[in-house]
Amino acid sequence: MTLRYQIIPVTAFQQNCSLVWCDETLEAAVIDPGGDLARIRAAVQQQGVTLQAIWLTHAHIDHAGGTGQLSRELQLPIIGPHPGDQFWIDGLPQQSQMFGFPAAEPFTPTRWLADGDTVQIGRQTLNVRHCPGHTPGHVVFHSPQIARAFVGDVLFAGSIGRTDFPGGDHATLLASIRERLWPMGDETVFIPGHGPESSFGAERRSNPHVRDR
């Protein structure tokens, strides 16, 4: 019994949407359905899983743009992000226009998340950490069982999230990475919002923004 996942790049921004599921119950959640819903639904069908929920790391358009439509069409609860991203959710229509995305349907999260919460899919439980800095309400989903973390735009292989958007803060982001991510362990592999996977240990050694001094 374990947690499995498939990365599905979506939108012109090549955002790493992730399909995660319990291999015993075949119940699944989709993390950050930013768009290209047909591609996401095809992956669900291909894996033979049943989609039960949408989990959001944060509410930027490339991560949350398809959420309202997918929730409405499949009657899925929307879990996350943290309430600090309410203004980003409210601004999704403007984000759509600004970045040339299809119009995003408005939505209200079924459940907001806070630091220390857990989310469950099938018999798998993931821990929630609030990691502000890229956005005020950004959260990360951590599965200690498989040593994986779905970190959205907090950390990338060789880089970190942008902090020049409204509500972003560089010092806060660095603190989130060092105080909330590093304790998950060097061996933990993270799935970023864009680009390839890496491990926290590799980033501590070589990432110029957050490596150990």
User: Radius of gyration, rounded?
Assistant: 16 Å
Task: Give the CA-CA distance, first to last residue.
Answer: 39 Å
CATH 4th-level superfamily: Ribonuclease Z/Hydroxyacylglutathione hydrolase-like
* Percentage of β-strand residues: 25-35%
Shape: globular
Q: What does the largest sheet look like?
A: 6 strands, mixed
CATH class: Alpha Beta
Q: Low-confidence segments, ≥5 residues, pLDDT <50?
A: none
What is the H-and-E element order?
A: EEEHEHHEHHEEEEEEHEEH
CATH-defined topology: Metallo-beta-lactamase, Chain A
Give the count of helical stretches: 7
**CATH architectural group:** 4-Layer Sandwich
Strand tally: 13
Strand arrangement, largest sheet? 6-7-8-9-12-13
Helical fraction equals: 25-40%
Q: What structural class is derived from the secondary structure elements? A: alpha+beta
Mean of residue pLDDT values: 98
Tally of separate domains? 1
What can you see in these coordinates?
This protein has 213 residues and is an alpha+beta fold. It has a single domain (3-206), classed as Metallo-beta-lactamase, Chain A (4-Layer Sandwich), CATH 3.60.15.10. It contains seven helices and 13 strands. It has helices spanning 37-47, 61-64, 67-74, 86-90, 92-99, 170-181, 200-206; strands at 3-10, 15-22, 27-31, 50-55, 78-79, 118-121, 124-130, 139-143, 148-152, 155-156, 159-160, 189-192, 198-199. The strands form three sheets. Strands 6-7-8-9-12-13 form a six-stranded mixed β-sheet. It has a five-stranded mixed β-sheet with strand order 1-2-3-4-5, with helices on one face. A two-stranded antiparallel sheet has the order 10-11. The longest helix has 12 residues, at 170-181. Residues 192-213 are annotated as: Disordered.
